[in-house]
Structure formats: structure tokens, C-alpha cells
Amino acid sequence: MVKEARGRRIVVRGRIAMRKLGSDVARYVNEGGVRARRALVVGLFGDLGSGKTTFAQGFAKELGVRERVTSPTFILMRVFLLPQEAAFRRFIHIDAYRIQDAREVTALGWETLATDPETVILIEWAERVEALLPNECLRVMFRHRGEKEREVTIENNNQ
Questions:
Q1: Residues 128 and 46 sit within 8 Å (Cβ to Cβ)
Q2: Which of its termini does the chain have fewer beta carbons within 10 Å around, N or C?
Q3: How high is the pLDDT of residue 94?
Q4: What is the pTM of this model?
């Protein structure tokens, strides 16, 4: 599904299907389908209400996050420790909606976080911090196609 994902477009209908897509992408990542020498960064791009948080919930659950996942809009970042059997040790969820300048993310310790190969960093509103994203970023773009239908484009730049 993601293996040949350079610009692959998927039509998603409803929240359950969006969570499943997030889960499918995380499973692929967790099984070694996407590797980076540094932290694996997954950038979520798209308008308000396009499915980013719902995707993130499915993604996090598949990695082994047991807590309820909500967008860290006001605290900017949440860090979750993953189970020992997971391919990664940490899942970091960043919501850049309120970020005015990418340097605000550097104040969160971006340089250290982004160099750890045992970490997966998922960034909602990644377009607001595009300057910080590594070239080997998994990019997931969300677009409204109707009230309950979204078009999701996945670009796997880690190949």
C-alpha cells in the first residue's frame, strides 16, 4: 500500500476508514517498510477537518499507544513510550497549528528528537514547519472531497 507510494492517492470514506489508513501506514512503518537514519518523520498536510487527527489516532494505536490520542494543539507536543516489541521506542505527536515560525519547534528540542532513530515523529499541520522536515519524510496530504470523503496522497521519500 505505502511501498510504492510516490504520490499514491487513496479515497477515504468516513472516520473508521481514516483510522484504518493510519493504522495501515503505521503497520508498514513498524514492519520496516520505511527506515531513516534519523528519527522517522511523518508530516500530515491539509485543511482543518480533513482527517489528520483521525489518521494520527489510528497510526498511534497501531504503534502500541494505549492512551487516548488527541491533537496537542495547546501544548504542541506529546511523547509516548512504545511497547518493547515495537520497532521504535518513542512516538512523538506534534500539532503545529498554532506555530507561527518553525523556530518554535526547535525550542521543543527538535535537533535532539529528530536525530534519534528509535523515534517516530508525526506532525499535524506540517506545512507550518516545512523548513524543519527532513528530505526523507513520509508526507501524507489530506484533501476534502465532500462531507465524509477525503482524498489522501502519500509520498514516501524514504526509498
A1: no
A2: C
A3: 94
A4: 0.89
Domain 8-156 grouped into CATH 3.40.50.300 = yes
Of the pLDDT bands very low, low, confident and very high (cuts 50, 70, 90), residue 2 is: very low
Q: Which residues pair with 40 in a beta bridge?
A: 120
- CA dihedral (134, 136, 114, 92) in degrees, to 10, reads 110
Residue 128's alpha-carbon distances to 6, 30, 36, in angstroms, are: 22, 26, 22
Look at residue 17 and give its three-state secondary structure. Answer: helix
Distance, CA of 137 to CA of 84 (rounded, Å): 24
Buried b (16+ CB within 10 A) or exposed e, 45-63: bbeeebbbbbbbbbbbbbb
pLDDT band of 35, cuts 50, 70, 90: low
